[in-house]
Structure formats: structure tokens, C-alpha cells
TrEMBL record:
It comes from the Bacteria. InterPro entries: Bact_solute-bd_prot1, SBP, TAT_signal. SUPFAM superfamilies: Periplasmic binding protein-like II. Pfam families: SBP_bac_1 (PF01547). This is Sugar-binding protein. PROSITE patterns: PROKAR_LIPOPROTEIN, TAT.
Amino acid sequence: MESYSRRWFLGAGAGVVAAAGLTACGSGSGSGGSGGTVNAMTYGDDAVKVQEKAVTRFNASAAAKTAKGKVKLQKVPGADYPAKLRTAMGSPNAPDVFFNWGGGSIKAYKEADQLIDLTDTIQSDSVLKSGFLPSVLASGALENKMYGIPMRGMQPVLVFYNKTLFTEHKLQAPKTWDQLLDLNAKLKKAKITPFALGGADIWPELMWLEYLVDRIGGPQVFAKIKDGDTSAWGDPAVLKAAEAAKQLIDDGAFGKGFSSVAYTNGGAPALLAKGRAAMHLMGSWEYSTQLGKFPDFAKKDLGWFAFPSYDGGAGDIRNVVGNPTNYWSVNARVSNKDAAIAFLRDCASEAYTKDLIANGDVPTTTIAEKLLDASPNPEFAKFQYQMVQNAPAFTLSWDQAVDPNVSQPMLTEVNKLFVGKSSPSQFVSALKGLK
């Protein structure tokens, strides 16, 4: 499995997918009925072999015969995918089914009436309704309406740590924010940077605010922002989260030069592996990054735990932030809706689940847990799975969830907060002004 580039394409790619001014000219026949080929457009990376096998399996199935249709897969190279999807969706040859990131990546298509609301379809279909973890299904929604079927692995954000450092200094994984601050003090006294942070990339900084807002105010704070209520940036939880992040920065939790350290060139992972930093808040792809760059460390000394609770906060410690998964969405003018829905049902199957696991992914299907012994690292895979399975809420990474035209200005403001160019109150004011 590709490591940090998965996050990079997920984050940066999502910001280019949707665009204003899309017109509702759908796919070829535009019948929306049954009969005819279903054209499925997907992101063409190393994981596309899972979708290729699904298409082959479906096309040979009784379900395809019943629906009088087959699926044709169009693979678009990763870096080209967002722009090609946008162009296709504005043409008479739009795909019937297409890969996306949920949230802001599909909002413009929804507003142009180009998507089928799948809520009733999912609720009335036992395979789709019970086939996926509820928090992941909900993360594909916009304004409580479901527009996506999960089709790849989960990528929650968690805290990774150096087991050797923790053992040497008799440290325990913190369960509360106060315990985390106490841990920071002990590590600094030992002249060890508490947390690695790839500040040069900015999006690793965002993860801190995502979790702090959740733990302090609960998932509903950002849910309002995701659905377009910019006044929700003024929620007290956002200011308190910014203040907590600033306290960490001022206390030296990330060291002095974090703004010149990158994740994408391996700088931040190296700090953790080499014992110069004790912990690292990062997406689950950190494991495969470490395995590729520092295999001995990954196998022997890499540990992980959930982000701690915030004392007095409204958020549940079981809540997760990150990238729930990728989704299939259906064009409102799909040429063969029956075949499209039948194809989407395969994503909940055991065969599809096994293919994802073989690719190094942790599937979001409800049957996945019993199959994870076949994973490259069953212990880590099961930890992730149970984390997401037990999560009351899974908040999509902010830079993917907000409108694409807001994503980059928001990241700019996050960076200004972290490098000391704005105060927590200035940060909140700037975010409230984003449209």
C-alpha cells in the first residue's frame, strides 16, 4: 500500500474535484432505468486491482444478468483524476458511477443535481444497510443524506509512539489531555521532542485542530461547518482548540524547527524512528511509511494509541477523525440504475473484503474483522478496525470536507496559527470570514 501519498492525493486531490458552475448534463442515455452498460470511473493507483476484480466478478454474476447490464471500468491516473472527473461530469459522457472522497469533493455535483440520493436505497437494502460500519457510511453523507457507498480501506488518524523511548523513561500512553501535557513535560526534561510534526506540509498541523475541536465540542461543531454554516467556526470549541494547540507549540511540544520539517520527504517519520521524537499524530498510513523507510523500527518499536479525551469536553474519546474511506457515487442520469446498485452491493461482499485486505487495506465492511488475520499486520489492522467500529462519529479531514475553494485558505490560516503569525482569536475570525 502506498503510504503518505495516499493522504496527499486524498487531501490535495479532493480540493480540485468539485467546481462551481457544473451543469446537470449526465451520462450518455440518461434513462435512469434498466438495461445498458454502467460506466464506472475510478482513481487509477495500485489499489485499482480490487475494483478490476469486482467488475470481472459482477459481470459474470446472476445479478448482472437480472439487471441486464454490465460494468465497464475507466481507470484514470491518480494525479489526473480530479480534473478529468470534473470535465467528464460537465459533458454528455459523464460516468454513471464514480470514485470520490465524500464531503467537499462531491458538494458541487450535489448542488448541480447530478447525484442520486442513496439514503432510501441503503435503508431498504439489507446488504447495503448492514454491510458497512455506520460511522463510515455516515461520513459519506451531506446534510444527512447519503451519496456514497464505501469502496476502499479506512484511514483513521491516531497517535504513534516509540516503544523504546516510552520504556526507557517509564511512560504510559496518555488517556486524557492533562496526562498528555504531563508526558510532554517529562520528555522535554529528558531533552526529547514530544511530538514529530511535518509542519512544512501544513496538513499534519490540521490533524491537531480536528481532534481538539472534536474532543472539546463534539463532532456536531464541524458537522455544521461541513454543511455550509460558516458561523460555526465561531463555536467556543474552535477557539479553545486553537488555544490548546498554541499552548503545545509555545511549550515546545513539536520542537523548534517543525515548520521546516516535512512529512512527504520522510523527515517527520525519521524523527520518530530515530528516537528524536517520542510520538507522532498521523494517519494510519504512518505504519506503511515506517515499514518502507525503517522496517526494523516498524516491526519492533512502533506503537499506537487513540487521541486522548479533553477534560470537561463534550467529545467522546472513541470519536475518530481522518479519512473514513473512498466512495462510489451514482450519477442522477445513470444509464442503468439497477445494474449500478447491484454492482455497489459487491463492495460489501466477502470476496471484495478479502481483496482489500490482500492489498494491505483495512476494509470498512462489517464482516472484515474476522478476516483480518490475513492482513500484513493483524494487530495493527484489528486496532484500526475496532477503533472505527466503536466510533460514535468519524469526522472527515477538514481539508476534504469543506468546499474546495475554502480548503487552501483554511490551511493557510492553520499554518499562520502554528508559526505564530496569528493568535487563536485572529485564527477564529479569519475562518469565520471564509466563504
